[in-house]
Amino acid sequence: MNRKAHLIAAILVGLATPSAALAEPACYDAKVRALPVDQVPSEIGDCGSDCIIMSWPWFVDLQVKRVIDGALPGKMVRALTIQHTYHVSREGIWLLRRNTAGGYNVVVPEDGAALPRCSAGGASVEPYIRPGDGQTLDDLRDAGIRRYGHRTN
Questions:
Q1: What is the pTM for the complete model shown?
Q2: Which positions ≥6 away from 49 have C-beta within 8 Å?
Q3: pLDDT tens digit string along 66-122?
Q4: CA-CA distance, 94 to 50, in Å (whole number)?
Q5: CA-based angle 153:97:100, to the nearest 5?
Q6: Which of 16, 47, 57, 117 could bridge across to 42 with cysteines, CB 3.0–4.6 Å?
Q7: Which DSSP state fits 72?
Q8: What pLDDT does 147 receive?
Q9: Hey, which bits of 22-138 come out as E strands?
């Protein structure tokens, strides 16, 4: 692998990819029909002139219209996703996995395969983005808003 390929791989792994963040086989805790009402990209540091970042962690606020499977504590959910740009601004089905930060990661099946519901009492997974010492996920979200803005519906 050449230097450029190593750099791209290191950046993507360093940010945490969905498959790397899951400690057990992919599953979901809640399947919901929801509308994305706010979308904020996380801030990404400068990776140099010879790399391309295609997808990275985003904060997405979902207004839940209906819980199809599982349970949620409320009708508004702040979730972390891995995406390239703003998500479609219409209602859709979202699969959510509890993370150790007290929120949810959006999970997407690989190759269109159906995902099972996680076992009751199953462990939470690491969030797609982890704050540094003395930081919270809200701090990272605020930094993303300051740098890139956000898109509300």
A1: 0.77
A2: none
A3: 999 999 989 999 999 988 777 767 889 999 999 999 899 999 888 778 899 999 888
A4: 34
A5: 105
A6: 57
A7: -
A8: 87
A9: 30-41, 56-70, 76-83, 92-98, 104-106
